Amino acid sequence: MRAKEICVIYMISRKTCASAVLAFRPYISKGNQPAELFCFIALLLPATHRFQSFRYLRSVNTPSPCKTVKLARYSESTTVVVAEPVNEEADSESKTCGKILVFLSWVLVCLTMPFSLFICFKVVQEYERAVIFRLGRLLSGGAKGPGIFFILPCIDTYARVDLRTRTYDIPPQEVLTKDSVTVSVDAVVYYRVHNATISIANVENAHHSTRLLAQTTLRNTMGTRPLHEILSERETISGSMQLSLDEATEAWGIKVERVEIKDVRLPVQLQRAMAAEAEAAREARAKTLNTISAEKNSTIVFPLPIDLITYFLRAKEDSQSNL
């Protein structure tokens, strides 16, 4: 295996076909002995493209072919693909052993018919999906459900994945704002599993990981903003957190639908200081208004008694009524 290899990659999509050529250098151990070769490919995929499979056709100057990598769905953001050369002997032995075990499992199902049907047929609800592993490998075809599906005893295992939206109340987090004010902030996150296969295969516990990430994202987001923005721009901060969480959990098969900041609690001393400042501002405005009104006040003095003026006004009204 030489120090420079060329892989031709065909990206198959529903709407487009493209090809890319990647030059990479393997890690060479001491003594010019070939080490294990990994090819890391970072691709920025447009939102309109849904790549169903990546096939490594050939590797120049490499006697062994590359492994075919198939994924049910790719991320809309950066995706990292790991490729490694295929060990033909180990792969053929594994396939042969797997076929034998599958055959024996089918024999067991036939011999124990109809009792085996209670074990082989499973049902998942409309809001659930089943991810099936056969001899430790993901079964082709993606997640099963909703409805009934079939598994082979002894060699198949499956995991149920709930696709419904979940809510997580983030506990109050003590945060030091950008202007060095300590506040306690709590929020609620609405998220769901949008890819059952990735949520099982890529992370040990997708829900627990999402919750821990939500806590750290809340602290990091609040720590970069001053206090007045936190109090007045909650919707903007919530949207920023939602985008950040959604991008980070895409590789786990999680879709963050909404983030809402519930409450921002200030220290008691700071609350008193803010109340005193607001009261002082109100008093200053009131004094300013009184000063302006006092300057524009005017007093009119009539040199006649008020009774005489009243008599003339009544006489005028009587004359108008007679007319």
UniProtKB/TrEMBL annotation:
Enumerate the Pfam families for this protein: Band_7
Q: Does the keyword Transmembrane helix apply?
A: yes
Q: Where in the cell is it found?
A: Membrane
Q: Which residues cross the membrane?
A: 100-124
Q: Kindly state which keywords UniProt assigns to this record, in alphabetical order.
A: Membrane, Transmembrane, Transmembrane helix
Give the source's domain of life in one word. Answer: Eukaryota
Predominant cellular place of this UniProt entry's protein? membrane
Q: Where is the Band domain?
A: 119-278
Decide whether keyword Transmembrane helix is in the record.
Answer: yes
GO CC aspect terms: plasma membrane
Family according to the record: Belongs to the band 7/mec-2 family.
Protein name according to UniProt: Band 7 domain-containing protein
Q: What is the lineage of its organism?
A: Eukaryota, Metazoa, Ecdysozoa, Arthropoda, Hexapoda
